Every structure is written in C-alpha cells, then in structure tokens.
Amino acid sequence: MSQEGGCQCGAVRYQITGEAEHSAVCHCADCQASSGAPIVAWLAVKEDRLTLKQGAPATYHGKNGAERQFCPNCGTGLFYRNANILPGIVDIQSATLDDAAAAAPSIQIQCAERLPWVTGLNNLPEFERYPGP
Ligand SMILES: [Zn+2]
Ligand SMILES: [Zn+2]
C-alpha cells in the first residue's frame, strides 16, 4: 500500500508505504494552537515508511519535545514528531493526503482539552454550500 500527499501549494510532497500504526483526531491545545483549528486528524506511521519526495518542510520546535513541520511557502502543517512520547513514529496530518477520505480516524485522543462545542457539531444546521440568502 502506498499513499501520497503534500501541502496546499505543492512545494512539499511525500509518500508513505505500508500500513499505518493508527489514525486519530486530536483535540489537544497544542494542536489547536499550531493549526489554528479545533481538531487535527493524524495518521501515525513508522519513520522509515515516510519518504519526502519533493521540497523541504520547515520545523517548529514546540513544547515538551514536540517538533512540527510545515511548508515554508504556504504554511500547511504536515508532520509531528516527539521522541519523548512517540519514538520512531511520525504523525502525518492526514488531511494532507491526496486521498484524505481514505484515512478515517479510529479514535479521538486528548479529549480532556476538547473545545466544549465540538461534541455538538452534529446537531447544527447543515448546508451543502453556504446558506442561501
Ligand atoms: Zn506549500
Ligand atoms: Zn494534539
């Protein structure tokens, strides 16, 4: 199995091979601060299963050993590593996969820091596009 992905502008491209270790949506405050979004979806793979095909992501060294990589041109968040808590693993922001729909998460993690309104999203009115006038 092989999957490819990349950033919004196309400068950084990557490929992963083999099976992922796990897939999760993360609600932690660190992901929120980094992404500017309420939730980040991750696909965890062993480090040797990730190959950078094109471009060079920039690195932000965050708290407690967190290392977050993103495209220096368009800012898309791509990879997370933390040798303290996830040795040998790279977490990939799964929405950057070309086929992001195939990387369905199986668990929710860090729910202690979940924004309280996230659990009510299913109850909000839905529109296929923007609501009409
Ligand atoms: Zn980019
Ligand atoms: Zn997180």
Properties at a glance:
133 residues; mainly beta; Metal Binding Protein, Guanine Nucleotide Exchange Factor, Chain A; seven-stranded mixed sheet; three-stranded antiparallel sheet; 1 helix; 10 strands; binds zinc ion
Any idea of the CATH topology? Answer: Metal Binding Protein, Guanine Nucleotide Exchange Factor, Chain A
Rg calc:
15 Å
Structural domain count: 1
Tally of DSSP helical segments:
1
Helix content: under 10%
State which percent range the strand residues make up.
35-45%
- How would you name the oligomeric state of the polypeptide chains in this document? single chain
Using the 3D structure, state the CATH architecture: Beta Complex
- Series of secondary-structure elements, N-terminal to C-terminal: EEEHEEEEEEE
Level-1 CATH class name:
Mainly Beta
Bound molecules: zinc ion
Structural class comes to mainly beta
Largest sheet: 7 strands, mixed
Give the averaged pLDDT, no decimals.
Answer: 96
Distance between the termini: 46 Å
Give the CA-based shape: globular
